[in-house]
Amino acid sequence: MLKIEDLNVFYGGIHAIKGISFDVPKGKITTLIGANGAGKSTTLRAICSLVKTKTGKVLFEDKNITTLQTDDIVKLGVAMVPEGRRVFPNLTVQENLDLGAFTRDDKEGIAKDQDLFCELFPRLRERLWQKGGTLSGGEQQMLAVARGLMSRPKLLMLDEPSLGLAPLLVQEIIGVIQRISQEGITILLVEQNAFAALKISDYAYVLETGTLVLKGSGEELLNNKDVKKAYLGE
Question: What is the pLDDT of residues 165-214, one digit of tens each?
């Protein structure tokens, strides 16, 4: 579904992404793991044109989207849930969800999807008229994911969804990601909690200082001695 070819990204004089290439197969969960500063978030931002690429291609369903504007990429079916949740704190939960559907005009479909995602996140239904900034950290993460889903994406990119959450909430978010995948949505996950991410991943890549150094199934990387030493605390 998504294909990255020889992607290079610079921040000023810093070569942040160094010629990486990888695939995200349709209907699967693909994970990027790596330390802080490895380039994981930059990769997601480059895919949706929030940062400009120097060279390389981003192909979505065989269409070159490298130079498209971000809103046009969203219309094609790509959505990103950013690191740090980034909900609109002064808007209600309902208004945040409405903004997630800004590219759509099918009112009945939007209402149906909101019901579906409120079933996925029951606490959101109870707080539709509460301001986003007054929610707990876990609730804000649920809202950020639901808002991303409101665009009805074919590909959902999640940037550090478990960051800063208590262990029980981490498991809840990981469970939600699995259920989203079961609905047929392709997922590209960036996650520092390597153990939790690899357990649910079909495919995974290890990124170090802008370079892909390992790849394999989630299970293969879970059992890789170098990954265990560097990312799993063993």
Answer: 888 888 888 999 999 999 899 999 998 889 999 999 999 999 999 999 99
Task: Decide: helix, strand or coil at residue 112.
Answer: helix
Spatial contact of 129 and 94, defined as CB atoms under 8 Å apart: yes
User: CA-to-CA distance for 128 and 140, rounded, in angstroms?
Assistant: 12
Total-model pTM: 0.92
Q: With contact defined as beta carbons under 8 Å apart, do 172 and 138 qualify?
A: yes
Write out the DSSP string of 115-127. Answer: HHHHHHSHHHHTT
- What residue has token string 């997601």? 44
User: Which residue do the tokens 């690899």 mark?
Assistant: 198
Q: Whose CA is closest to 217, among 197, 232, 233, 231?
A: 197
d(CA 94, CA 101) in angstroms, rounded, equals 11
Strand partners of residue 77: none
Question: Is residue 187 a contact partner of residue 180, using CB atoms and an 8 Å limit?
Answer: yes
Measured between alpha carbons, how far is 141 from 126 in angstroms, rounded to an integer? 15
Q: What is the DSSP letter of 129?
A: T
